């Protein structure tokens, strides 16, 4: 979260192991200011293997079967986080509490599989290349907030540039004319990006309650994805469908 005294970020990767082939196993720990407890996770070829529940001192495998082939002691993650916390305090003091740069995210929305009307499907909101790892994702259906059927991943590190990525999943049943919107809020955003579809039905107008700073991406079920619109964040947004 934000803190009046300033914000700091420290990232200490665990040892990197490279196999004989092109696959890479990467472990990383993240700590930031503002009262955050931090995050510790491992991934293989950018797929998450596990993270550590720091509060309950427990290793959480992304798939239960992963824990049958290997193990990880949660206490090791706590040691990494303690190391990061100490280093972060030193970095904040040395930088005279200078705020870190806010890097805005890129956002994409797409279905997991081809959409069929009346059949349960999953929409994916992929948010990437952002920093710090402080971000809110909200789903809307026809302008109304959706809370049921929503799942999110942890913040995954991008080793290429020390930024982060995150997935949000919405389980839904496609019906004609429905519009699903993924709203993303991040400190680095100052404008509004809207992906609007070409309509196949008679025009109608809805208001999407996007907040500043945020990104909104719209998906119209059964329609072809259309043009990219750019609008100022402080102006009301209306989309004809």
UniProtKB/TrEMBL annotation:
SUPFAM superfamilies: Immunoglobulin (SSF48726), MHC antigen-recognition domain (SSF54452). Keywords: Adaptive immunity, Disulfide bond, Glycoprotein, Immunity, Membrane, MHC II, Signal, Transmembrane, Transmembrane helix. It is a single-pass type I membrane protein. GO terms for cellular component: MHC class II protein complex. GO terms for biological process: adaptive immune response; antigen processing and presentation of peptide or polysaccharide antigen via MHC class II. Residues 105-207 form the Ig-like domain. It is found in: Membrane. Belongs to the MHC class II family. This is Major histocompatibility complex, class II, DR alpha. The lineage of its organism: Eukaryota, Metazoa, Chordata, Craniata, Vertebrata.
